Amino acid sequence: MQNSSLVALLLAFWSSLYLLDVFLKSYRRYGKYYQEFQEQHGITVSIGQARWYTTCMNRVFLKIGQSNSTLFHAWFTFGIWFGIIAMVSSIVLLVFMLIKTFQQDSTSEQVLTPVMPGVNLPLSQIAYYFLTLAVCGILHEFGHAIAAVKEQVRVNGFGVFIFLLYPGAYVDLYTEHLNAISPLRQLRIYCAGVWHNFIIVVVCILLLHFLPVLLLPLYTMGNGAIVTEVLPHSPVSGENGLDVGYKLLSINGCTINTSEDLLLCVNDVIHQPTKGYCLSIDDIQQMNKANTDTSKDASERKYACLTARSVTDRITCSTYYDCIVHRDMACLHPALDKNTYLLRIIHDSGPAVLFVGDPYFLTYTVRVSSYIPRYTFSPISFPNMLDTLLKYFISLSGALAILNSVPCYALDGQWILTAYVEYIFAKSIPKPTDRSFLINCILLCGTLLLVSNILIAMVTLFMS
């Protein structure tokens, strides 16, 4: 139902946009001005797609591409090596995934997974997705444009677009200039896009690794985990529960120093024997309001109804012998159902929070961060947002680098393969028709390989 609603909403949006565009163009009074505005600003709208094309970036490309010629020559030469390695690696990866899929009884472990907002991408993270794709696509095309200027190929213009749900960018190069240069110089241009995607991955990995150091002036780490979000349906939300800004310190005596410790402490609670609490016999008799029979010694009773908050404040124990401080002491364990646990969550903003239920449900409904703000103006959620954004850049930019390297029609891999074959086999295969036949055979295999993996991944996504 959710998938159908998303498709219906998508169709309604693009249909409305296209019909509005047609109506404004045909409007007798203002249609002419509307079309002139579109032509002047490079805006086009078609079914399922909107584009913006401009020449205002040409000066920027020209200025950057003509500066420091030696550095850029080495930079884009490294890009050739990466492009060739990525092209071969992409073929090996797709073949491996296809073989692995057919070796399994189902496609549930398919590695290649299309990202579909609202299907396998939470709508709460759709901003990360669009921002990452847009920036990665723009920097990818910037690589092509700067490399083209470096190789004396004219840049006609630059554009961005959105196709259905996927934003992207493109650069318009002067074809005659591009075909006139040598295959090696062409490779510097064709490989520049995937090379820049790879550089984005490397930079983001370094930023992610040094993020605690970079945020040190505003945030501290290692002395707790701060709550950044409590979902409305969480059992610890509301009064006497947890709230945004609370710093978690421990769960059932397990110390929490970072956000990762929350899950570790929950696992510890589940896999370790349930702890009890030391109480004196007198305290048990006074707190046991369920049984009015005081003639029988409380130490002989199997169960007692006690106040959970008062009991859990006591010293923990595993057996009776852990409580031998005084003679009349007992080790009481909570009576719980299977897969139900009692958690005592200590935080810095009030009395402990008691949770009874599945501990993993707590981790699903409470989001925490290791970064504790030093100042009141330091946003609580900013480090987590930055961490998530960097991870999106790493995964999506890496995917774009690999996918664009595949020797497939309409992808960068097509032109990388063409220029590479022309450069390597110009002497050993002198006839252009023979080289063209070799190129088309490889492209056909690469296209079929990629399409097969995508189809299998799509079937897996919508059938699961």
- Beta-strand percent range: 15-25%
Shape: elongated
- The end-to-end span amounts to 14 Å
Q: Radius of gyration, rounded? A: 31 Å
Structural class: alpha+beta
Number of domains: 3
- Tell me, rounded to a whole number, the average pLDDT: 85
Biggest pleated sheet: 6 strands, antiparallel
What's the count of strands?
A: 15
What is the percent of helical residues?
40-55%
Number of helices: 16
Membrane topology: Multi-pass membrane protein
Protein name: Membrane-bound transcription factor site-2 protease
Keywords: Membrane, Transmembrane, Transmembrane helix
Transmembrane segments: 6-24, 72-99, 126-143, 155-174, 194-216, 437-463
Briefly say what this structure is.
By secondary structure, this protein is α+β, with helices and mostly antiparallel strands. The protein is built from 16 helices and 15 strands. The chain has three domains: 1-47, no CATH class; 48-208 and 388-450, no CATH class; 222-373, no CATH class.
Characterization of this structure:
This protein has helices spanning 2-26, 31-41, 58-65, 69-103, 126-150, 175-180, 183-190, 192-209, 211-214, 259-271, 281-287, 308-311, 359-365, 382-405, 412-424, 432-463; strands spanning 43-46, 49-54, 155-163, 166-173, 219-220, 225-230, 247-251, 254-255, 276-280, 316-317, 329-332, 341-347, 353-357, 366-369, 372-373. With 464 residues, the chain is of the alpha+beta class. The protein folds into three domains: 1-47, no CATH class; 48-208 and 388-450, no CATH class; 222-373, no CATH class. The strands form four sheets. Strands 6, 7, 8, 12, 13 and 14 form a six-stranded antiparallel sheet that branches. Strands 1-2-3-4 form a four-stranded antiparallel sheet. Helix 5 (126-150) packs across helix 8, helix 7 (183-190) packs antiparallel against helix 15 and helix 15 packs antiparallel against helix 16 (432-463). The chain is elongated and about 100 Å long. 27% of the residues are buried. InterPro entries: MBTPS2, PDZ_sf, Peptidase_M50. Its EC number is 3.4.24.85. Belongs to the peptidase M50A family. It is found in: Endomembrane system. Residues 129-433 form the Peptidase M50 domain.
